[in-house]
Design goal:
Blueprint (H helix, E strand, L loop, with lengths): L1 H54 L15 E3 L1 E5 L3 E9 L4 E3 L4 E6 L6 E3 L3 E5 L2 E6 L9 E2 L5 H12 L12 H14 L11 E2 L5 E2 L4 E7 L6 E2 L4 E5 L3 E5 L12 E5 L2 E5 L5 E2 L2 H9 L1 H9 L4 E5 L2 E6 L7 E10 L3 E6 L4 E5 L2 E6 L2 E11 L2 E5 L8 E3 L19 H4 L4 H6 L2
Parallel strand pairs: 8-11
Antiparallel strand pairs: 1-27, 2-22, 3-15, 3-21, 4-14, 5-7, 5-13, 6-12, 7-8, 9-10, 12-14, 15-18, 16-17, 16-21, 19-20, 20-21, 22-26, 23-24, 24-25, 25-26
């Protein structure tokens, strides 16, 4: 019995060992198959990729450029050389404005900081608006029709500046009376009438020292009793003239337009001082100028509304004020935009470009955004230019304009030049 059981145990052990060896061989065979399959897939992918590279579409030779661009088309634009200019404004002394009449102040528009304009009103006396008027010569006597003199000429000129049909002469006439009455009616002020003997004199209106003044300090108060000759207010310093600084080296020569507030004025080429009364009145009424004056009498700086101002020497003591405004060419230039590399022999704002290997003189007016802007006379106009000059021949360009800077002499590729169009 024991011998039989022992024999059966040995048989089972041998059978188990045999099964284990079979399972191990099956596992090794499975790994081998997986490796073979993986290698097959890799080879298939390599083959497909290689086939694609060998069979991919080729770009037609007719579409492949074999030459580099040598010329580029140029575009034209209007160039006005717009920039800021700092005027040095010479200031007069501040003034004291007095009342022309007696009575009770019943209304006022002359508080500190306000601007009083010739042809407007300053205050009401006994419920009647009192006109303000600037005349070049203050009225020092009573004028009637047929009176001649500088005071009559000043009254006529003041009325004409306001748009009324006063005579262009130094005679007081019925046309003067009609023009003054039209102004008085527009403001509700007293007219020249038979009651006044058809006359006008120093007591008819508030005399202003300029076409517009800024009130610095006011003595006017509603309810106050006022007498003729009493002080009403003091004005801030008034512009006497404006000086233009020396032209910048890159300033394009020519007549220019300067914008002051909502007005523009022509400044002829070569002008160094501005004395036009209308222009000075516009400066006087401009926000930057008035803010600087109202700041203090001592040196200081302010800016506002697109302009800036710096006071020196005492704003109310005959000092100066630097005020910046925008100006530009009165007649814009037609400028051509060319690659900087196209310009050669650049000196003193002049230079040459090569057009079909021929030299063309140009005036350099600006360099910006990777382009050089040039102008030419009508006979030399061109619509394309050699990207790199194909000639070294010299040409004599018109003088003036902007000196060449480093962008003019720097290189630019044909691709860059075309990309800037």
């Amino acid at each position: 019995m024991d011998r039989t059981q022992t024999g059966n145990g040995k048989k089972e052990a041998r059978a188990a060992a045999k099964r284990n060896r079979a399972e191990q061989r099956a596992a090794r065979n499975g790994v081998a198959v997986s490796i073979v399959v993986l290698l097959a897939l890799v080879m298939l992918a390599v083959g497909v990729g290689g086939g694609f590279l060998l069979t991919r579409s080729q770009i037609p030779p007719s579409l492949v450029s074999t030459t580099k661009a040598t010329t580029v088309k140029v575009s034209s634009t209007q160039f006005d050389d717009s920039r800021s200019v700092a005027l040095t404004v010479a200031l007069g002394e501040s003034s004291t404005v007095t009342s022309p009449v007696n009575g009770t102040i019943t209304g006022t528009s002359a508080s500190a900081g306000t601007t009083i304009y010739s042809g407007g009103t300053v205050f009401d006396v006994d419920a009647k608006p009192i006109l303000a008027l600037h005349t070049d010569v203050p009225l020092y006597r009573t004028l009637t029709s047929g009176t001649q003199g500088p005071d009559a000429a000043g009254l006529n000129a003041a009325l004409r500046r306001l748009g009324y049909a006063a005579p262009d002469s130094d005679w007081m006439t019925w046309d003067t009376i009609a023009a003054y009455n039209a102004l008085a009616d527009s403001e509700g002020a007293a007219r020249i009438s038979a009651d006044s003997g058809w006359s006008i004199g120093p007591g008819s209106f508030v005399w202003l020292p300029a076409d517009s003044v800024t009130v610095k300090q006011s003595s006017i108060a509603v309810g106050r009793q006022i007498t003729a000759g009493a002080d009403l207010f003091t004005t801030a310093a008034i512009p006497l003239k404006a000086t233009i600084p020396a032209a910048a080296s890159d300033l394009v020569a020519g007549d220019r337009m300067i914008a002051i507030g909502d007005q523009t004025f022509t400044v002829p080429a070569g002008t160094t001082e501005l004395t036009d009364p209308a222009l000075l009145a516009a400066i006087n009424a401009s926000t930057p100028f008035r803010l600087a004056l109202l700041g203090s009498d001592q040196s200081g700086s302010m800016s506002a509304g697109g302009g800036s101002a710096i006071a020196s020497g005492g704003a109310s003591a005959g000092g100066t004020l630097n005020v910046s405004y925008d100006w530009k060419l009165a007649q814009p230039l037609t400028a051509l935009s060319v690659p900087p590399s196209a310009v050669y022999d650049a000196t003193g704002g002049s230079g040459c470009v090569s057009v079909d290997a021929k030299p063309v003189p140009v005036t350099i007016v600006a360099s910006q955004l990777g382009k050089t802007m040039v102008s030419v006379d009508g006979a030399s106009a061109f619509d394309h230019v050699d990207v790199t000059p194909r000639t070294s021949a010299h040409c004599s360009a018109a003088t003036g304009g902007m000196p060449a800077d480093d962008t003019v002499s720097s290189g630019v590729t044909a691709h860059d030049a075309q990309g800037g169009e």
